[in-house]
């Protein structure tokens, strides 16, 4: 979501005539990279899901200070989730008063105006909207990738998991109109996009108003997430549909059916479990149990054998006992995730869990975390090895970042493959095409083909 917001910010800057600034000044060996040196505008888009990001933000501001002192005309803007928290804006005001513009996640569209005011009249503004009711369509976008794209379908979150800051920083759930989503994707595909990832904090609670409907009551009978996928399935040129993130508590049987019916929905589902302990899931306010999660995974595997199941896991939620953690390890053995994003619980100010008394000591969290990641990686490796010898359809994304002689792309399950093209070269322009690749070797994080 944060990356997608950055694409909009970059798009707005480009439409004002700005260009991406490449580092032109070489820095002395050992000194930190300062890619912003000499830029006219510096924008920092922040995330506040974990404390680590907060700390890095303030560290980064500290290093930008020198640039601002040396070139006071440089405009510094900070935005994103962190700015949706009053205590952060207060700290920026107090300690980093040289920041020129502050805006939040709910008023990104105001950035061009704030920037022009600053540029022309040197008017500093700290403008943040606590929540938003409407969705502003048609903001310019500078996409990161040529052949795959993120498409927002909804904003905000109403779930209030007790550890999570997102409902406070992104506001209440609101869904885009199905026609707006469809039109955006038609435009993308006409320009060569092959794969889209539908984005929302909880795509399963998508509820789109059909054109002409005017009230929430109408919207209740409108388009749900399963309908939306069906509505997008026939768009010309669209080869792959993915989505993230879906919440296990709202995963309907109708949506499960779409996995067997849709022509373009990829055999991959990101289904954050967070913990394997039903007791901890209750404390997290997740709204499902370990058994319900396991049964959902098995239903998905029934309708779409071979579907890749990935997840998010939090270790060290307040009150997590050795037995609770053993339940998480048990789920890992039973599901055998294709991969997982793993997090050490990080208390977020303003969320209920941050106030719980029984916080887990740091050393215990780290020990559990390391044990869990080690086992997850072993399983990923074992599962990946099973694919060796298969021919897979790869959407080619370009040349590999680490080895420019290799192409790089992903399987329908979302696995990364670096491969040589027999008898082909970069000049053959495989990028953006879907090609058959024989998988010859597999590691934990990627394949060779
Ligand atoms: N809406 C998505 C998650 C968005 S946040 C969902 O519900 O699945 C992405 C991930 O960050 C979460 O799934 C969770 O695993 C992790 N996360 C969120 N808050 C956290 C916290 N306070 N500490 C550690 N991890 C956290
Ligand atoms: Fe956070 Fe839960 Fe909403 Fe995901 S569903 S964004 S974890 S509150």
> Can you count the helices?
14
Approximately how much beta-strand content do the residues carry?
A: 15-25%
How would you write the strand order of the largest sheet? 18-15-16-17-20-19
Mean pLDDT: 92
Pick out the low-confidence regions. 24-31
Distance between the termini: 31 Å
Main pleated sheet:
6 strands, mixed
Structural class of the secondary structure composition? alpha/beta
Kindly provide the radius of gyration, computed on alpha-carbon positions and rounded to a whole number of angstroms.
23 Å
Identify every distinct bound molecule in the structure, by name, code or SMILES.
Answer: S-adenosyl-L-homocysteine, iron/sulfur cluster
Shape: globular
